[in-house]
Structure formats: C-alpha cells, structure tokens
C-alpha cells in the first residue's frame, strides 16, 4: 500500500493517523461488535461519540457556553440559504463582502431571500487579488449581518483582518480555513464550514452560532434548515451524518493530542505556506497573483511561465506521487491545497519537484 501526497482542494487529505484509527475501529467499535456506521444515533455509545466530538471542538476553539455548535448536512452551499433564512426574520438588510467565487455564490443565493442585498465591499475590480480594506467597507444602517468568506478556496485569497462592524453580527464562511489557526469565536455571530477541507469527510457541515441569534428565523424556513430546531434537538432532529461526525471527532482528537492544539497547528501551517510561496517567488518560472498580505495559507494557486506546459506538469507530478495539483476548472493553472492534514513532507516533495521541473523545462 502506498499513500501519495494529496493536494486536493476538497474533499481533501485526512490525517493518516485518523484513517488508521477509523480502520482499526471499522468492524468492531471498542469491543461492541459493530461499526459506528451501524449504530443508532440515539444509542448511549453514539451519543457519547457525538458529545465528545463537540467537547473537543469547543476546547480547540475555546467556544463559550452562549454559542451553540450544530452538526448539520447539505454542505456550506446550503448555508448560503440557511444564513438569510435564519437571520432575516426581523427584517434588516443582509450585507456581504465580495471576494471571489464562494462569496459570489453566497451573495447570489441570499439575494433570493432578501430584496436589496447590499454588497458592503468588493475586490472585483482588482480581479479578486486582494480583499477590500476596512475603510472601504460601507455597511447599511439597518444591516442584519455582515457576511464574509475568510478564505477563498479557489482564488487562494484570505482576509488578513477581521471586519469591524460596530455591533452588526459577523457571519463567516470558514469552510477552508477553520481549525487552521486559533480563533476568537466571540467576535462572530455565525461561523459555518463544510467538513471536507479541514474537519472530516464530506456530508457534515459545522455551524457555530451565538444563541441570541436563534430567534430571527423566517417563518417559512424548512425545519431541517432551522438553526433553533437543530440546536434544541442537539443536532439530532433527524438522523445526523453519524459516521462523518465520528470521523470529525477523530480529527479534533488528532488536533488536540497529536498536534498539540491550534497554536501549534498554525505554526506548522505558516511554515508550510512560507516554503511554498518562497519556491514560487524565488523563480521566474512560477507565479502567484495574490497580494502578499492576502495570500492564503491553505490554498496556493500558481501558474507556469508557459501554460502549454501545464499538462506535462500535471502528468509528471502525478507520476511523482503528488496528486490533484490542477487549478479549479474556472481558473486553470495549478493549485496546491495544503490543509492541516497535508504534512510538511508533502510541501518539501512538491517544492523539490517544482525546482526539478523548472530545470528541465524552464
Ligand atoms: C468548498 C467550499 C464551499 C462549498 O462547500 P460544499 O460543502 O461543497 O457546499 C463553500 N465555501 C467555501 C469557502 C468552500 O471552500
């Protein structure tokens, strides 16, 4: 068996230690004679697995008691609708910051529920190579919330500051950088993230919400999309994605006990990203268009000096055991996603390959 280095943007690499633990427990979870996948979500064993996962997540992120943690389904894309459905019941204008593909999708979906959605800031004119500065943000007086995307997974663009809103709840799509570094949850009203980048397998979606925001739901909101109903039922209003939740729990445990917490994780992530950006910046052959301050530590897009070499690069990198380096279909070029579970050795292998490729083709 060989496991290659996987730079996939999502579903993404999982820590090998987590996969091994899941493999070990697959047929017989802790001597009970059945797989986690085969357990009732109401059983004592499963409820213990689920609450331990939440407890570990709360520990990692220092989530205060007045925040609910919801384990939902439907991916981050469903949150694009759930956010307005759950937060606009008392009126007000949703405000959004536009920074690329994912923010754009969030805006498009929310527009279906809110006339007069307001784009409070945009870097469209800059081709989404930076984020709008704080002093460029213009919120409406009646803002219900301000939504932003902390890390644009496709563009490789990240916020380097937390938008100041003067009390308006901040809502953040953190799908591709949650758990990559410490986080002050108290600065946010709602945080959401699809699992398949830094949390676990696809199928699970995490929502962290301040509990005073649970009473603003629009009346026609489907029960399955209602944050309050989800919270009141401990995320078990219906059958939750039990296996994904269990696996996320293993990832939280790995972050806590193998890595040693999010400060440590952030240190490793910074070192990984710096190595890769240095390799790009130190060559005339590779390039990254993003403003230095807004470069993502999770997704690193880069182009080759000659796009005609893209195909060769992808063929040769794959043959060298470096998987999934193709850029998003809407962008082209290359993209290395280097989430928490991608080890530093993967970056070393990639930069060595890049340097060798440049020597042979540059
Ligand atoms: C991947 C991603 C999404 C979409 O997630 P799904 O779970 O596929 O709906 C949304 N926002 C960001 C920032 C992402 O990285």
Key features?
Aspartate Aminotransferase, domain 2; binds pyridoxal-5'-phosphate; 362 residues; Aspartate Aminotransferase, domain 1; alpha/beta
Quote the beta fraction.
Answer: 15-25%
Q: What ligands can be seen in this structure?
A: pyridoxal-5'-phosphate
Helix content: 25-40%
Shape: globular
- Please identify the structural class as seen in this structure: alpha/beta
Give the uncertain stretches in residue-range form: none
Order of helices and strands: EHHEHEHEEEEEEEHHHEEHEEH
Let me know the largest β-sheet.
7 strands, mixed
CATH topology of the largest domain: Aspartate Aminotransferase, domain 2
Cα-atom radius of gyration: 21 Å
Number of strands: 14
Number of domains: 2
Number of helices: 9
Ends: how far apart?
Answer: 34 Å
CATH superfamily of the largest domain: Type I PLP-dependent aspartate aminotransferase-like (Major domain)
Q: Calculate the mean pLDDT score and round it.
A: 97
Q: Indicate the CATH class of the largest domain.
A: Alpha Beta
Order of strands in the sheet with most strands: 2-10-9-8-5-3-4
């Amino acid at each position: 068996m060989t496991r290659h280095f996987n730079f996939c943007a999502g579903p993404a690499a999982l820590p090998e230690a987590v996969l091994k633990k899941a493999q070990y427990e697959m047929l017989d979870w802790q001597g009970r004679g059945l797989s986690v996948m085969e357990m009732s979500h109401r059983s004592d064993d499963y409820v213990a697995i689920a609450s331990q996962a939440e407890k570990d997540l709360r520990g990692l992120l220092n989530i205060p008691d007045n925040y609910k943690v919801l384990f939902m389904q439907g991916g981050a894309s469903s949150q694009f609708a759930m956010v307005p459905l759950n937060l606009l019941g008392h009126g007000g204008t949703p405000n959004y910051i536009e920074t690329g593909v994912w923010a754009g999708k969030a805006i498009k979906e929310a527009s279906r529920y809110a006339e007069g959605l307001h784009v409070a800031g945009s870097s469209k004119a800059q081709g989404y190579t930076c984020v709008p500065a704080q002093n460029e943000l213009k919120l409406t007086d009646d803002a219900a919330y301000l939504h932003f995307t902390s890390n644009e997974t496709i563009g490789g663009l990240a916020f380097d500051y937390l938008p100041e809103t003067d009390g308006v709840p901040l809502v953040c799509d953190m799908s591709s950088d949650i758990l990559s570094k410490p986080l002050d949850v108290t600065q946010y009203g709602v945080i959401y993230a699809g699992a398949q980048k830094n949390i676990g397998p696809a199928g699970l979606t995490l929502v962290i919400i301040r509990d005073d925001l649970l009473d603003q739901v629009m009346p026609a909101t489907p029960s399955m999309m209602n944050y309050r109903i989800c919270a009141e039922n401990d995320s078990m209003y219906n059958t939750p994605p039990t296996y994904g939740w269990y696996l996320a729990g293993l990832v939280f445990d790995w972050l806590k006990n193998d890595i040693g917490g999010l400060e440590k994780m952030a240190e490793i992530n910074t070192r990984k990203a710096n190595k890769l950006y240095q390799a790009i910046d130190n060559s005339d052959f590779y390039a990254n268009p993003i403003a230095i301050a807004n470069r993502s530590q999770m997704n690193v897009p880069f182009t080759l000096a000659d796009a005609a070499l893209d195909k060769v690069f992808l063929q040769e990198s794959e043959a060298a055991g470096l998987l999934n380096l193709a850029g998003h279909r809407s962008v082209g070029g290359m993209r290395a996603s280097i989430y928490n579970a991608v080890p530093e050795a993967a970056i070393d292998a990639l930069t060595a390959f890049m340097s060798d490729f440049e020597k042979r083709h540059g």
